[in-house]
Design a protein that fits this description.
Blueprint lengths: L4 E2 L3 E9 L3 E8 L4 E8 L1 H4 L2 H14 L10 E7 L2 E7 L3 E3 H8 L4 H20 L12 E4 L4 E3 L4 H7 L5 H7 L5 H4 L6 H17 L9 H10 L5 H4 L5 H10 L11 H17 L17 H8 L8 H16 L16 E3 L8 H10 L3 E8 L8 E5 L5 E3 L3 E7 L4 E3 L8 H10 L3 E8 L9 E5 L5 E3 L3 E7 L29
Parallel strand pairs: 11-14, 16-19
Antiparallel strand pairs: 1-2, 2-3, 3-4, 4-6, 5-6, 7-8, 8-9, 10-13, 12-14, 15-18, 17-19
Length: 500
């Protein structure tokens, strides 16, 4: 791959990492002249059509996330039969590597990193996107110590198609909420649990639960009391110990109701650290008031709920087996009869109402996962997964992307820029340079743009051509040139011929 140019745009410079699903390369975007991370799907997954379809749908949803704490997705495509995604290139290391090197962190670092992580994931939650795999492996720390959360949607796509990888399962299970280990879907509450585990690890340098197998770790998350970070590291204050305990509550309903609520407590802790105030309070205290010392232990290690051990073991075992060999879930199907197979109707290009009616007629449902700009009319289906024509089980949910109509962009002000600079700015804005004219101008220097159409700050459809007029500089009238037919007299006051 090194040295290849993908889609006449991305020049592969070097291999950076080998992940569970992607091989990651550093590449140069020849069009916008910037460095990007190019993630190419591993060959063993590229042939799984269902996984690829779901991955594209999840990446489409993640591409709409524009928070500074989330790595930007620039483009998706396919090269030699393998899907790829071009993303923002982050110079730095993942949080897991920093934990290995330096944990336990200083309290101020734990709080600042936690706040940045919560802000990014909270933004995604408010946009309707759950991460599902919040681990320190997916939290990047830049050279400027900024936080970047990456890989939104990949875990959900893998889980949805019963496809995973043993290494990914082994490392991800340490941050997996109990209800997800039992087979439930990832939710806001499960993301909050995962952040709680990361905070615990930053505060103590260890994981809350250890085990030799994914099953052993998952069982401990589900059955053992929530450990106290303060018991592992006595320098951890009550306030941060309580934040971790609340985020890692066994019952999702006992956790923080949102990332924003958890963020408020961390900001309070940050203010206390900055002002030198004690961190003796705890979000686990009833009504925010202090507890008696004898009650304190209960705030950090609530009694475990009753779990059906055999059911949990069966579920987690299924989870791991599916990670190694997709398709075994069918053996666990029970009900009043096997559902029949139906064909996904051709809903691409149809309005939302028409698509829902067509799916309902064959026993399928529709879920809108993303809206994006396209040439299709507003609220028309532009993408569906599984794709139309595929045979699926009756009752299946079809994930669709709806059109928001053509995307509009603002026309930049190009006056007084050079032609080369104007073309570059237009390309970055998603526009094109149209016809180029020139004219004389007494004010604008030669070679600079003197006029444009459409004008600055107009909103036009992406890809619109902008006509440019370039200055030729001041107009200098030509010197008069004498001709034989028009002789010029040396003494105009004298006649050319003598008078009689």
């Amino acid at each position: 791959m090194i040295g290849k140019v993908i889609d006449a745009r991305y020049e592969v410079l070097e291999r950076v990492n080998e992940g569970s699903f992607f091989t990651i390369y550093k590449a140069r975007d020849r069009v916008l002249d910037r460095v990007v991370a190019l993630k190419v799907l591993s060959p063993r997954f590229a042939t799984n059509t269902e996984f690829v379809e779901r991955l594209r749908a999840e990446l489409s949803a993640a591409a709409a996330l524009t928070h500074t704490g989330i790595t930007r997705i620039y483009e998706t495509g396919e090269f030699e039969g393998r899907p790829y995604v071009a993303t923002e290139f982050v110079r730095g290391t993942d949080l897991k590597e920093r934990i290995r090197r330096a944990a336990p962190f200083a309290l101020s670092d734990v709080v600042s990193l936690g706040i940045a992580l919560l802000q990014a994931v909270d933004y995604a939650h408010r946009a309707g996107t759950v991460h599902g795999d919040v681990t320190p492996y997916n939290v990047l720390i830049t050279s400027d110590l900024d936080v970047k959360v990456t890989d939104f949607g990949i875990s959900r796509a893998a889980g949805a198609s019963a496809l995973s990888h043993s290494n990914a399962v082994l490392r991800g299970v340490h941050y997996l909420a109990p209800e997800v280990a039992q087979g439930g879907e990832a939710t806001v509450a499960s993301d909050i649990y995962s952040v709680g585990v990361i905070l615990f690890e930053m505060l103590t340098g260890t994981l809350p639960y250890a085990g030799d197998t994914p099953i052993a770790v998952a069982l401990k998350h589900a059955q053992e009391p929530t450990p106290s970070a303060r018991a592992v590291n006595p320098s951890v204050p009550r306030a941060l110990d309580g934040v971790v305990a609340k985020a890692m509550a066994k019952d999702p309903g006992a956790r923080y109701p949102s990332m924003l609520a958890m963020l408020r407590d961390l900001r309070h802790a940050e203010e206390c650290i900055r002002m030198g105030r004690p961190l003796s309070w705890s979000p686990m205290d009833a009504g925010g008031a202090g507890m008696e010392s004898g009650d304190e232990e209960e705030a950090f290690a609530e009694p475990p709920r009753r779990w059906d051990g055999w059911r949990l073991i069966t579920t987690v075992l299924t989870f791991v087996v599916l990670a190694l060999a997709a398709g075994l879930a069918g053996f666990f199907f029970t009900g009043y009869g096997m559902p029949k197979d139906v064909v996904v109707p051709e809903i691409v290009g149809k309005s939302r109402v028409e698509a829902e009616e067509m799916l309902d007629q064959v026993g399928l449902s529709m879920k809108v996962v993303q809206e994006q700009h396209s040439d299709q009319p507003v609220n028309h289906v532009i993408y569906a997964a599984p794709e139309p024509g595929r045979q699926v089980t009756e009752g299946r949910e079809i994930r669709v992307t709806l059109s928001k109509g053509p995307e509009t962009v603002r026309v930049p002000d190009l006056l007084h820029t050079t032609l080369a600079e104007a073309k570059r700015v237009l390309t970055e804005a998603g526009l094109k340079a149209g016809a180029i004219r020139d004219r004389y101008d007494d004010v604008v220097p030669k070679g600079q743009v003197v006029a444009q159409d459409p004008g600055p700050d107009r909103h036009v459809i992406r890809g619109t051509q902008v006509m440019l007029t370039v200055s030729k500089g001041n107009y200098v009238p030509p010197e008069p040139v004498a001709t034989p037919e028009e002789p010029v007299a040396e003494h105009p006051e004298l006649p050319l011929t003598p008078e009689p």
